Amino acid sequence: MDLMGMMGKLKETQQKIEDTKKRLDTVLINEQSADGLLKITITASRKIKTISIDDSLLEDKEQLEDYLIVTLNKAIEKATSVNEQELDAVAKMDMPMIPGMDNLFK
Questions:
Q1: For a tag on the chain, would you pick the N or C end, based on fewer CB atoms within 10 A?
Q2: What does the alpha-carbon distance between residue 90 and residue 69 come to, in Å, rounded to a whole number?
Q3: CA distance 58 to 79
Q4: Please, is 79 exposed, middle or buried when counting C-beta atoms within 10 Å of its C-beta (0-12, 13-18, 19+)?
Q5: What is the spatial distance between Cα 73 and Cα 68, in angstroms, rounded to a whole number?
């Protein structure tokens, strides 16, 4: 592949990555506490969309804070995993093989 071809392929890959990032804004991940009293919806871009808190959790501030920390962290972890898998797939699929750059995507 010539240099112009590689540059074109890189530009195309960048566009696909940007398109994937936009699509990840619409991918919703639902997470909840083990007992279902706290529910969170987050995008694969790690933006919180909704938080639903059962009234019983409003009586104990410390418990609510613990629920939020645990459930938000689980949601963020799942969203990060989806995000990375999607972006890695696009990058690996479309990147031209440039000598010395193959270690960037491992």
A1: C
A2: 32
A3: 27
A4: buried
A5: 8
Residue type, 96: P
Residue 43, SS3? strand
Q: Which residues pair with 52 in a beta bridge?
A: 39
Under a CB-based contact definition with an 8 Å cutoff, are residues 16 and 23 in contact? no
Q: How many Cβ atoms from other residues are within 10 Å of residue 51's Cβ?
A: 14
- Nearest Cα residue to 68 out of 47, 39, 45: 39
CA distance 78 to 31: 9
Q: Which two tokens stand for residue 91?
A: 């990058």
Contacts of residue 76, defined as CB under 8 A and 6 or more positions apart, other chains included, come to: 42, 46
Alpha-carbon dihedral sign for residues 6, 8, 14, 19:
negative
